[in-house]
Write a structure and sequence with these properties.
The complex is a heterodimer of chains A (about 375) and B (about 400).
Chain A: H1 7-23, H2 26-34, H3 41-49, H4 68-81, H5 87-101, H6 104-116, E1 121-124, E2 140-144, E3 147-158, E4 165-171, E5 182-188, E6 194-200, E7 206-218, E8 222-223, H7 230-265, E9 267-268, E10 271-272, H8 277-305, H9 311-337, H10 347-359, H11 365-378
Parallel strand pairs in A: 1-4
Antiparallel strand pairs in A: 2-3, 3-7, 4-5, 5-8, 6-7, 9-10
Helix pairs in contact in A: 1-4, 4-7, 5-6, 5-7, 7-8, 7-9, 7-10, 8-9, 9-10, 9-11
Chain B: H1 7-23, H2 26-33, H3 40-53, H4 71-83, H5 91-104, H6 107-118, E1 124-127, E2 143-147, E3 150-157, E4 168-174, H7 182-185, E5 186-192, E6 198-203, E7 212-223, E8 227-228, H8 234-248, H9 252-268, E9 270-271, E10 274-275, H10 280-308, H11 317-339, H12 365-374, H13 385-396
Parallel strand pairs in B: 1-4
Antiparallel strand pairs in B: 2-3, 3-7, 4-5, 5-8, 6-7, 9-10
Helix pairs in contact in B: 1-4, 4-9, 5-6, 5-8, 8-11, 9-10, 9-11, 10-11, 11-12, 11-13
């Protein structure tokens, strides 16, 4: 057991941190958010050129090794800069499914293009009724000879607006909440019958509602074994959840530091408001929350890379604790900034927004506390 | 970063496990299982067993008899000892005064005091707080006036934990004039408790036990040779000690043990139609405390790991104090809630050895409220949690 970063990991962290500090200032980010695409294609290509898109993947598919710690390091820095390029949705989540379930030719074709920066993916799993239950899949795929006919509605598909291809969870057998009978299909965004309605999300990212109406998908587009996709989805969502927690920790660090800085410059009653103990102790609490969140994040990331087999419990512990910290730090950062905190002008309000949405992605804080309880019973 | 234990670490874990299995006295184990309060003899006996093995002082440098363990080994030992229900080493000698002696004491002092601390031959207590010097510790008024080769000490120390057992007390005293700055006016003295002009009077804490004391010094003569380091530098030494004290105070292993107790008892306690552990509201409360404890465990591991790479325990150790005490207190509260009505009875001495009255309530239910009351102290002592936040603000956040 050790907590040291390797030299390569230190270099990776430094290089992402440098990019955030030099090329991703708040005003640049705001321009990107306001742009047509909602993310910068140049940045995306840069991520590819710098090898960051390799980070989520193992070496045999052209990745860097796929360590959760590496991923954590990248996401923490992305969190500090509130990066809106769809690294999490496209590479970690949808790419992760291809890497986990795909056949060798599928991995070769899709992941090579993804890692080179030429392909955007999205994972369409969520449905209007499913909330956080990954087994709640009402979208159907009926087998007709050598192809499936897919019908259904996928909700709030992250990166759904830009995706060239979708990984879609469908029910090939059983009824709505059955664990068995869920499959993954790889579907081109231009396929007849697939329509999407893209929109911005409150945190400056992009998503889409995706409607599937008699979409014909060849059987060869199956990712993995028909009907057996749920464990794969759970595994990749767990990994993505830890990456999201890392983003949150980065954003929290940024939020408490910006708050400390602001209270040292903002003067009221003739003194910096940071000299008031009533505010100082609240900032100490923000710092403590951030460090507790960082600790449990590191635990979960190490657990994913380790071989003890208690990862889901660890992931839920992390998401629950990080969610709690994200709420406190986001709200306090705005409160301590006062009026300017509730405007679009300052970055702190945007950190608050992202720290809010993170609480409700891949399972809310309460959802993960409950999931932790369930897993604690079985482990 | 890697969470898995290495082969050596696994072998060490087995060694610790076997050692405890063989050497931890059954009568002490039984007392702990039944929540019977341990006596001085129990604590000293276990510490001497550790001493025989060379495991008494996990944190000391090897040259003074420390273990030379890595941070992971310390974690493993604490966990194994906690799981087996072993009492923690009493901090005053081993973890509080010893680091001051081996860091700032002279050769003669090291040879005179350290071996007896290591072998648990001498019981120490801490003379810091005074009736009017609590959070503002540096405002202490106990004086030590130089008279030839001796100091004459006058004043009152308070909240002195287990002073009734103590052979020696380490004290912060004022050697400079009252108007002098604290940084140069306070000295660190070791005082023999056998002096007849020292009086110890018990203070009863909320659980009804005389755990702490008031210690009065009336013209106590203390050899100058008992002063650690320079005259007037005691405040600097004490601050170092306080950081050590804070790293010891997270008490993760002990809280993990107690958390297991909570889960077990909640599963055995009926709640309207089902077990309390199945009550969603209570299960959520338990899970939140357990998750906080898990985060704390890794905060502690990160801190220990940083110390092992040569960094002194920094202001981050204040997090361990704050969160460690909050988690411990939250667990105590869960135990009271589980006890329900049986949190009410107060049967004096039911949880002392030799009790021959009628025990009330299941298990240690009737001990839950006294423990909860008693442990409200933890967020107050060792620098209150508010003082810890001041430290974080000043030293980490730069406020």
């Amino acid at each position: 057991m050790d907590f040291k970063l390797s030299e390569e990991q230190q270099m990776l962290q430094d290089s992402v941190a440098r990019f955030i500090a030099q090329d991703y200032e708040f005003d640049k980010r705001e321009k990107i958010v306001a742009s047509e695409d909602g993310y910068s294609k140049d940045n995306w290509q840069l991520f590819a050129d710098l090898g960051w898109l390799m980070v989520p993947f193992s070496e045999d598919v052209g990745g860097l090794g796929g360590s959760a710690i590496d991923l954590m390091l990248v996401m923490q820095e992305f969190g500090k800069g509130m990066v809106v390029e769809p690294f999490l949705a496209s590479a970690v989540l949808a790419g992760g499914l291809v890497a986990e379930a795909g056949s060798d030719p599928q991995k070769e074709e899709i992941l090579t293009a993804l890692i080179e920066g030429g392909l955007q993916l999205a994972f369409a799993y969520n449905e209007p009724q499913s909330r956080y239950n990954l087994a709640d899949v009402a979208t159907t795929a009926e087998l007709h000879g050598d192809h499936y006919v897919v019908n259904g509605h996928k909700a709030v598909v992250l990166n759904g607006k830009a995706a060239d291809q979708f990984v879609i969870s469908v029910r090939t057998a059983g009824t709505r909440r059955d664990h068995d009978g869920i499959s993954l299909l790889l579907v081109d965004a231009q396929t007849q019958g697939l329509s999407r309605h893209g929109y911005a999300t409150v945190d400056g990212h992009q998503a889409a509602e995706v409607n599937l109406e008699n979409v014909k998908v060849p059987v060869s587009a199956l990712l993995g074994t028909a009907g057996k996709a749920l464990p794969v989805i759970e595994k990749v969502i767990d990994r993505t959840t830890v990456a999201l927690c890392a983003e949150a920790v980065g954003a929290m660090e940024s939020a408490y530091k910006k708050t400390v800085e602001y209270t040292q410059t903002r003067k009221q009653f003739g003194v910096p408001i940071g000299s008031f103990q009533a505010l100082q102790h609240r900032m100490a609490d923000m710092f403590i929350e951030c460090e507790q969140a960082r600790s449990i994040l590191q635990m979960a990331a190490m657990q994913l890379d380790g071989n003890n087999g208690v990862a889901p419990k660890a992931v839920s512990a992390a998401k629950s604790r990080v969610g709690k910290a994200a709420r406190l730090i986001g709200q306090e950062a705005v409160q301590l900034h006062g009026g300017i905190g509730v405007t679009q002008e300052l970055d702190v309000g945007h950190l608050f927004k992202r720290l809010t949405t993170i609480q409700f992605m891949f399972g809310s804080t309460d959802f993960h506390t409950q999931r932790f309880i369930q897993h604690a019973k079985t482990v | 970063m890697n969470i898995d234990f290495t082969g050596e670490e696994l072998a060490f874990r087995d060694e610790v496990r076997n050692f405890i299995k063989q050497k931890f006295p059954a009568d002490i184990r039984e007392k702990i299982q039944n929540s019977i309060q341990l006596e001085k003899d129990d604590l000293v006996r276990w510490q001497k067993i550790l001493y025989e093995k060379g495991w008494a002082a996990a944190n000391w440098p090897v040259e003074y008899g420390g273990t030379g363990w890595t941070s992971v080994q310390k974690h493993i030992f604490a966990n194994e000892a906690g799981q087996a229900g072993c009492p923690e080493v009493v901090a005053f000698g081993m973890k509080m005064v010893a680091p001051v002696i081996y860091n700032f004491g002279n050769e003669e002092q090291k040879q005179r005091f350290l071996p007896d601390i290591l072998a648990s031959n001498v019981w120490w207590c801490q003379g810091y707080s005074e009736p009017n010097a609590g959070s503002d510790l540096a405002s202490l008024k106990t004086t030590a006036v130089r008279d030839g080769d001796e100091y004459i000490v006058n004043g009152t120390k308070t909240w002195t934990t287990l002073a009734q057992y103590a052979d020696w007390i380490f004290c912060l005293v004022r050697t400079g004039p009252p108007e002098q700055k604290n940084q140069i006016a306070i000295s660190f003295l070791l005082i023999d408790m056998k002096e007849s002009s020292i009086t110890v009077s018990p203070i009863y804490t909320l659980d009804g036990h005389p755990e702490v004391n008031e210690v009065r010094f009336h013209n106590v003569r203390v050899p100058v040779a008992n002063r650690i380091g320079e005259e007037g530098q005691g405040w600097t030494y004490a601050k170092l000690l306080l950081t050590h004290e804070r790293t010891n105070i997270a008490r993760v292993a002990a809280s993990k043990q107690k958390m297991e107790k909570v889960k077990k008892q909640a599963a055995q306690t009926s709640d309207s139609s089902e077990a309390l552990s199945e009550n969603n509201a209570f299960a959520m409360k338990m899970a939140e405390v357990e998750i906080e404890l898990l985060a704390l465990e890794y905060t502690e591991l990160r801190t220990l790991s940083a110390i092992s790479t040569g960094q002194a325990p920094g202001p981050e150790s204040s997090i361990l104090k704050i969160k460690g005490t909050e988690v411990g207190q939250a667990i105590d509260e869960l135990l009271v809630e589980i006890a329900g009505y049986y949190s009410l009875p107060f049967v004096k001495d039911q949880f002392m050895s030799g009790f021959d009255g009628l025990p009330i309530g299941p298990g240690a239910a009737a001990n839950s409220a006294p423990r909860y009351f008693n442990n409200r102290k933890t967020s107050i002592f060792g620098g209150s949690n508010e003082i810890q936040k001041n430290i974080i603000c000043k030293a980490v956040l730069g406020l």
